[in-house]
Every structure is written in structure tokens, then in C-alpha cells.
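User: Could you write out the 3D structure of this protein bound to iron/sulfur cluster? I've included everything you need below.
Assistant: Certainly. Input first, then the structure.
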Amino acid sequence: MTSVAPLTPMSLGALLHRIDHEWSTRNRIFDLPTARIWSPEPDVDLGFEFLGRPCATPIGPAAGPHSQMTQNLVLAWLGGSRLFELKTVQVIDDLEIARPCIDMQTVGYNIEWSQELSVPASVDEYVKASMLIRMLSEWEPLAEHLGDGPGEHVFDMSVGYDLAGISGEKVAGFIAAMLDAGPVIERLRPEIGSAPESFARLADVDFGTRIADTLTLSTFHGCPPHEIEAITRHLIDVHGLDVIVKLNPTLLGYETVSAIVNDELGYRDVSVKEQAFADDLQFERGIELIGDLADYARERGRRFGIKLTNTLVVDNTRGVMPDDTMYLSGAPLHVLASTLLERLSDALPGRLAVPGHDGEVMVSFSAGVTKENLADTIAMGVNPATICSDLLKPGGYGRLAPMLRALATTVSEDGFADLDSWRRHRQERAVAAGHRTTCAEHVAAIRGEGREPFALSGNSKLPREVDHDLEMFGCVACNFCVTVCPNDAFFSIRTPEDSDLESRQQYLVLAELCNECGNCLTFCPERGDPAMIKPRLYSDVSVFAAHEGQGFLVSAGRVVDYRGGDLEAATVGALLAAPAGDPLGGVRP
Ligand SMILES: Cc1cc2nc3c(=O)[nH]c(=O)nc-3n(C[C@H](O)[C@H](O)[C@H](O)COP(=O)(O)O)c2cc1C
Ligand code: SF4
Ligand code: SF4
């Protein structure tokens, strides 16, 4: 499976119809049940400042599959995310990514790059998400699930990968559109007026036109290390942005990385790519750079931070995805990034904004964050902890709210009501236990007796399998394909009572939202690829015509054309006609 599957985003109007229809028939939004919507704890304030901007919770999606499309960002917000590192935008916006591109069977591997949409389409997705979040904050049916209110959130842009690309017209246009999205908002606004009544009444809402004014620079995918300084200065000087530089685990050096991954954690089969270390930023230069850029930003009234880390470049020895190289994330990366944080804070005394140093350089984090380690991660002083791999596991976006609840419980059980005072307590406790900082304490734990959840032995369990070939209708109905899909391309319909079909639920794919990433294939317990075997619904005639294989063109809730058998088409038609059947409520996107 190597064909490129471009995404076709849903219009704002279609998304509003979909929400309205799904809520009234199933009490869900984009397949997320109300029990997984984050409602802030009244007694614990989980808020923090992201480069000076208030953020109501310290978690959110890391740049990746969860921060590319509108419904993904909305799902992450409903789950409790309040800091969003948007999918990286770059000058090459017609990338051909080999498929499948995600392999989360054990730890985490991918071969993705940056956004798969054109730059203008990416702008639209981010603006639509921002508008939808604003509307949902005021949407009456949701009010009882948002407690005292959702609180503030921040969209953080991500761009890559070199000075020429970033300073060129395309990326500059992207940044300008995110700084002032007024024209895009006014172009989209009429779609609200023709949405169902509960949304149409919000058509005159005063949407903020500044979608994002902070930016995280990706230094991955061959970003020349000698250009990092010039790119950051450019972003500060030309666009007036507050900037974070996302660093790579290669900063630790090949010997340390391979000793941790292969020897300490036992991933003997992971072949760390030595060449990537030579090509990347070196530790000594990194230290100079962080200090210099922090000074440069401060002198210009701007803020500067670092993010630890992007993924680790390794040889592709698994054979699940094409390409010779793949990028490791998840549990082992957590140990690398935490170790790097300890080394950087030691090398830059008093400069990083973490307990025990109390400097000005904010540290954002993305490396194997899970519900189990979130509290210890946040205690290290990172702001925020962003997540990618864990959200690609069964439960998907529904994993966010339990993470926040667990964090709030820890803070509250320690006797605190906000993150800052709780972190001070954790730092005092770490020092009393003989550690210099909470970070040093965490690193000692995860490289010592607490190593198991990060080591091979704690990450070798494979997804469940059943001895059955997957069919178009009927399956074990585990729902994994719905929750692991970052794009919410899968949905299920309860099998009508008068149907001959066996399973209680039927699973269908909104083909235009599926980029064939392969994540549902990994987790489906049956044999076969759900994204290809389950009925693929199209709503755009040209996209339908451009694809091969089985497919059903749907309009106003009915099958109007199809490739495949007559019986299958009749069955899909009957399913869509069932109560709550058509997820689009009969509307064409
Ligand atoms: C499928 C996938 C796509 C990603 N795409 C991007 C990207 O576009 N830009 C970026 O800076 N990082 C990207 N990343 C890296 C993540 O943002 C994150 O830094 C990394 O996966 C570590 O976090 P995790 O262990 O929670 O996955 C991607 C990661 C994955 C797994
Ligand atoms: S349906 Fe499956 S292959 Fe398609 S985007 Fe979702 S998880 Fe990926
Ligand atoms: S298609 Fe596979 S993953 Fe989806 S519900 Fe059926 S068995 Fe589960």
C-alpha cells in the first residue's frame, strides 16, 4: 500500500451539521462520548502560562496527526487539550508520503513528514477549528459538560525546515494568515448562518482573528543546524513571534542514546542511525544557541523556549512501513527527552524555567507522555506536556480527560490547588530525598527501578488478534478503528433490528478523511485492513471518481453511485437510512 491518499477536509457547514446531528441522535461529537469530555475540576487549577499566554490545562496534541484537521483539533479540545502544537507547515505542500506511515504496535514509529494539505487548506483547517472551538464554548447543549467553562487555549504554529523555505512567500503567507485570519473568517462565516439553528444563532459571534502568534520551529528532517539561529531571528524580527525551538534527541550524542535505548532499556533490535547525529545540532553549540536566542528574544521584548523532543531517527528493520528510515516515539523517547532536560538544565544553570533553576526559557515537552507518567512529567517543570503516540492507541482522544483527572487528583491529594505551588512542593520533596531537582529525581527513577514501563519488557505486548478474516459487514466490533483514527474517519452504526447482518454494530469509513495511515490496520484484531475492507463512503463525486476499489458515493443520506456489488450497496443504503445512520445528517460536505 504505497498510493498517496490526499485528504479532503469537510467544510465548516458540514462539520456543524455533523455535530448537530450526532449530538441529537447519539449524544456524541465526532464519536467522542460525553464521559470523555473534560470538565475542569472546580478545586484544582491546572492552568499555566505558555510564553505568557494563559492556558487552562498543561496538555495537548504534539504536532502530528492529531493537529492537522479541524475535527482532530476539536476532538483534542473536547478531551481537555488547551495547548495545540499545530501540524508542521512547510514550503513543500504536495508531499508524497509512503503508506502506511504509522506503526504504533509496540512503542511508536512513523515515517510522516509535515502537513499533507496545501498551505491554504491548512490555514482553513486551523481557522475552522478555532471558530468551532469558540462556537462550542458557547453552544448551549455542551454547557453542562464544560463545568465552569472551558478556559483559555493556545494554538501554536509549527513550521520547518530551512531558512529559504520559511522566509519564502508561502510560509510567510501562512504565518500572516494565522496572525490575522479576518478575511478567512468572513469567507467562512456564511456557512454558520445556514447551519442548524443551535449553531446558526452563533453566526455573529466575534471570532478572534489572531489564531496564533507563537511558533515552534521543527529542526527535524534535515533542518540545517547552522540555520536555526537565523530562522529564529527571522521569525522574531519579521513576524514578531514568540518562538520555541523543537530539539531532537540526537543532542544527547550517539553513545548516550544507544546506551540508553539498546542497553539500559533493552531495545536490542532498534538500530539508531548514527549518521543523523553527525548531521544534527551538537550539544555544545545547542547550549550556546539557547543562551543566545533567549537573550536575543528578551532584548526585543519577545519570549523564547525550547521543546524536548522530536522523534529519533532509526533504521527501518520492522518491515511494517516502507522507507529505509523511520522515526521512533513513545516510551523510550521519554527517557531520552527527560535525560536531555537534565543535561541541558545542568549546562545552563539558572536559565531554564524549571524547578531548581527558575530561569526564563520555557521548556515544552513531547516524548512518551501517558496518563501514568503525566504527573511526574509536569512536576519536572515542563509547560506543556504534549502527546502524540499515546493518542494513537485504542481510546484515542478519549485518553486525554482521564489523564487530566489523574493529574488533578495527584495535585489535590498532595494538598495543593494549583500547578505552581504543587511543583514547588515536588521540588522540595525531591531535594529532601537527595536529588538536585524534580527532573533529576524523575530521570533517576526511569533509568533505575522505575524503568519497566519504558523498557522493551514493558512494551512488547502486541495488539490482540482473532483468527478471522475481516469482512465488509460484521466483525468483533471492538470499536478500535473508531478511536485510533486521528481523523475520525471511522464511525459505527447500530445494526438495524430487522437486518440479517450478524454483528451488533457496523463500521464504515468516510473515505475523504482517511489518509491510509495504517493505524486502524495495526489495532484491528481481525485479519485485514479495515480502512480498505469496510464500506468506503464518498461525498465528493470527483474524489470518488479518482479512487479505485470499493466505494459508495453518498448524497443526502443515500447511495447514488457505487463500485462493488449491488447487495453491498443496498446494505450500505439500509444502514444509512437507520436511525442515527448517516453521520452527516444527510448533508453534503
Ligand atoms: C505520526 C507522527 C507524525 C508527526 N508529525 C510531526 C510533525 O509534523 N511535526 C513535528 O514537529 N513533529 C511531528 N511528530 C513528532 C511529535 O510531535 C512528537 O514530538 C513525538 O512523536 C514525541 O511525542 P510522543 O512520544 O508522544 O509521540 C510526529 C509524530 C508522529 C508519531
Ligand atoms: S481510517 Fe485508518 S487508515 Fe484511515 S486515517 Fe483513520 S486510522 Fe488511518
Ligand atoms: S473493523 Fe476491526 S477494529 Fe474496527 S470494530 Fe471491527 S474488529 Fe474492531
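The longest strand covers residues 154-159.
User: Perfect, thank you.
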